[in-house]
Amino acid sequence: AARIIQNMDPTADPCKDFYRYACGGWLNHHVIPETSSRYSIFDILRDELEIILKGVLETSDQGDREAFQKAKILYKSCMNESLIEQRDSLPLLEALTMVGDWPVASADWNKTKEPNWSMEEKLSIMNSRFNKRVLIDMFVWNDDRDSSRHIIYIDQPTLGMPSRDYYFNGGNYQRVREAYLQFMITIAKMIRADKNVSKDDSFVQEEMAKVMELETEIAN
């Protein structure tokens, strides 16, 4: 109650400016950080929690239960920047190999990979190994008709960009769309270079334009 009162501005007339009356104290005591687009009590709690979690994850894992050890191993692997830089693109190239390679980053994918490539198999690998659902979203959740059991749900997945608007609207949406396409082209060129595949910018641009066209059709 004291915190709520502190975040109010009782001197403001609620009939004239209710927002100032309800939130004036908060506005007086807090400034939105340059790294944020908003700042609320939930943002403060999140920042405080991240500091606490950082301290917990950096403690010794001796005597911890297995789940805590795994969390600390994952944290250490993310913080080991020297090893990450040393491995460079190798983890990504290994992941691409698991899913049957990437046509745009291959010299002859249609001849060497496509004959044995199965979409159903690769979708299941993306789901089970990488928790990435493409074309179809599938998950287990509480049954809406009987909360005592869990059932399999099948749904549409998320899009490459945040929402459908990014694929069709103009203005800032169009600028994001153009940057998104350029980002795909840049990544494809980088992978081709790392795999020592010959440079072919026109081929990459054509292939990535097809990807954008497919995503737009899915969004529609």
From TrEMBL:
What Pfam families does this protein map onto?
Peptidase_M13_N (PF05649)
List the Gene Ontology MF annotations in alphabetical order: metalloendopeptidase activity
A GO biological process of this protein is:
protein processing
Recorded superkingdom? Eukaryota
This protein's GO CC annotations: plasma membrane
Among SUPFAM superfamilies, the record links this protein to: Metalloproteases ('zincins'), catalytic domain
Residue ranges of every copy of the Peptidase M13 N-terminal domain listed in the record: 14-220
Q: InterPro entries, alphabetically?
A: MetalloPept_cat_dom_sf (IPR024079), Peptidase_M13 (IPR000718), Peptidase_M13_dom_2 (IPR042089), Peptidase_M13_N (IPR008753)
Which species is the source of this protein?
A: Indicator maculatus
Q: What is this protein called?
A: MMEL1 protein
